[in-house]
Specification:
Blueprint (H helix, E strand, L loop, with lengths): L1 H36 L6 H24 L15 H32 L13 H4 L1 H28 L1
């Protein structure tokens, strides 16, 4: 259960980061609106900060959704499947999902390393910081998906005994 405790702490950290990113987005957009419509002066970095915050928010939020098994699921066909076909379908879907996460990790890390010297237009930060959300999110989704798969199988095994 130490692993579950570690993952619970990791999830709490991610939820804190999600809250902070959301606050950054709201504040920067509010500031942008006030500057644009009250002072007739645009803020060049607010939109960029909001965009990159949204990318990180999406990837980190998707990882929490993976842990809680809250991603969208189309179960119209799976509800009609016999049990053995459903188990086969779940194994194939799990393999494809984990493969996607590996692709995100490998190619996202490659993209982040390629773009490290490229600076963003308004913030002048390395673009790799924005692109790093892809492999980090992929890694966290992989971690949480593997964890939930093992927890689900352990719970099913306990129910059968």
């Amino acid at each position: 259960m130490k692993v579950k405790s570690l993952f619970d702490k990791l999830e709490k950290l991610i939820l804190f980061l999600l809250s902070a990113l959301f606050a950054v987005m709201v504040i920067s957009i509010f500031l942008q609106i006030v500057l644009r419509y009250v002072f007739h002066s645009a803020n060049p970095w607010a939109e960029e900060l909001t965009r990159y915050s949204f990318v990180w928010l999406t990837m980190l939020g998707a990882s929490v959704a993976s842990r809680k098994r809250r991603h969208m699921n189309v179960d119209f066909f799976t509800n009609m499947m016999p049990k053995i076909a459903l188990k086969i379908n779940n194994v194939i879907a799990s393999i494809l999902t984990l493969s996607l996460f590996l692709v995100m990790i490998i190619y996202g890390a490659n993209l982040a390393s390629i773009t490290h010297k490229q600076l963003s237009a308004a913030l002048s930060m390395p673009m790799s910081y924005a692109y790093l959300a892809i492999p980090v999110g992929g890694f966290l989704m992989l971690l949480f998906t593997v964890e939930s798969y093992f927890v689900k199988n352990i719970n099913e095994a306990v129910k059968e005994d």
